[in-house]
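Take a record:
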Amino acid sequence: MKIANLFKGDKAIWAVFLFLCLISIVEVFSASSTLTYKTQNYLRPLIYHSGTILVGVVVAIITLNIPCRYFKLITPVMLFVTYATLLGVLIWGQSINGANRVIQLPGFTFQPSELAKGTMVLATAQILSAMQRPDGSGADPKAMKYVLVVTVPAVLLIAIENLSTGVLLFGVIYIMMFIGRVPTIQMGKLTGVLVLLAGLFMALVFSMASLDKEGQEIDAAQQEGVELVAKQKNEDKSAFEKVTHRFWTWKNRLTKRSTTKGVSPEEYDIKGNYQVAHANFAIASSNIIGKGPGNSVERDYLPQAFSDFIFAIIIEEMGLIGAIAVVLLYVILLFRVARIAGRCENNFPAFLIMGLALLLVCQAVINMMVATDFGIVTGQPLPLVSKGGTSTIVNCAYIGAILSVSRSAKKTLTKTAI
């Protein structure tokens, strides 16, 4: 079999994907000094991450060879698995940085929220495509109800332990409904409800966060740069505590953002804003071309240099040129997917790949904003670049699905031209 036959689909997307994978291998290896220190093996992080990337590429190749119509068939199964694992992680999940986010399996950990994101996009695309009016005037008014019934419970289950991922997912679903031409009046009403709920949520967080002493201790430890990985002692908590134990963290992050804005360098609390401060140091010490791969200084201080704050390390090592190049890769991905979606003969594949692309690009924007101190610290990794297990492989599957649609869209275009 020729190698060219493996890399089928849109060549531009393949180029973006492979460039991001190469950047990931180089930067994760460079930013993994803390992991190297713990294991006393400087090659282990590189081998592990390179192996994960390789598995991801294989998953992408397998996925791109699945015809798009089969994605519809697996939706019920994916929904069942998603809800089962989201409930399971709240009960039996392993705690990372004070939140139940992963399920420990033999040899690896599984993060249900990563699977849930793709599943909800898949279900939303299927509902919106099935409920387009025959006259081409947009989606049936009932489409929004069905989308919300299917997706909102998953969003809430995710948000309990990972608020930023829940908000990201619902934001993408909201944009998909806009792309799917849900009636404007309904979208306006939904927007109003969301604004009201956001206000009530913030009031609830600020009023109840003081009840959660464990959350305060966890956040204090995170300020010192300590990575907390421990099993959650659910048996010692009441149902109320299980739901509210993250309130202190949310309040603290919101408060920090408002109190550090406009503070002079002399008054800035470096200890209280440990991660953001060292990310700023990394960016400030770079220049147009950066210090060069492997020459980062702040990687030794940032506890999540290889994950949440890897974009700061990229800027430090690759400079402004490297940062712009990474941003452009995500921009190219989004615009290329939009062009492929415009060539699709059916609505389902177009909605699906736009949703998947929005997941990747919106998450990238959030990560970059946090790393450059333009947003609240959220813990969102940089898609296809940050170190990860489940997230890396699932994101590669998203790319494979996009490439699968690009193949069928290309065939449709060819037949039309003939």
